[in-house]
């Protein structure tokens, strides 16, 4: 398994065979796939020699036919399978069948085709090195782990997005923005657009960034509640411990969890009344893309479950305010209790 620097070195020597990308940020993955496409196919016949396939809807026959077809007036062609979830460590029967057929096919894949696939990790805690499917694919493909951009590479990339949108941002403000926003370029772009709209006609200040960006702990609590919906107790408690290690107060953590359940309850009620994403976003005072994520999360709970979870939060708050209880233990008990409602 190589990283993006390893891929860059490999591209200088020449491209051939199959490539499998795995990571959290689809934008970074797509940009590097575009580099492979640009280096391999070009000119007026690019559209004929570049094929994209939806990995969530495809079949092995579709993949094989795309790869077997000879390139049109060129030496090579590129076939990209996006969101190839059949590569995940756990997939359904249909996905497992495609994966097994693909493993055999790659042993004698045509040299005129560069096959590129990728899938997105579920969360930052998922470790692709534990995916046995990737280990098997490495025998006949190059597996690329796409990590988040950091340091100067991150600052440079984010700065270029501001420039593309015609907005100047100072170096100090740029670094503060990068250090404050979630390191995901789909989110970064939305937050940049929001910040630009808010500061129209003037320079961006640190206070603007602080005011407009969501608290990072809110993202962790979203993940925590999502793991509760999946009945994953260990991961839920791991996130709580991470928040504590970051210095977050237990009462604040509890308050954020309670607010999350309350929002989900309100959103569920609103959806039942036929309210749109934009309507709900205004009511909860959150951007539309965050509201969309909350709408998806709310569907994982029933009204009874959400009510019970909110009640557990209130009971735990009462206990945390008493010195007679171990606060961390009570939080763990609450999380385990929410998994059982």
Notes on the structure:
With 341 residues, this protein is α/β, with parallel strands linked by helices. It is 60% helix and 9% strand. The protein has three domains: 4-146, 3-Layer(aba) Sandwich (Rossmann fold), CATH 3.40.50; 151-212, Helicase, Ruva Protein, domain 3; 216-340, Up-down Bundle (Zinc Finger, Delta Prime, domain 3), CATH 1.20.272.10. It has a five-stranded parallel sheet, sandwiched between helices. Strand 3, helix 5 (93-106) and strand 4 form a beta-alpha-beta unit. The longest helix has 23 residues, at 250-272. The radius of gyration is 23 Å and the shape is globular. Its EC number is 2.7.7.7. Keywords: DNA replication, DNA-directed DNA polymerase, Nucleotidyltransferase, Transferase. Residues 19-146 form the DNA polymerase III delta N-terminal domain.
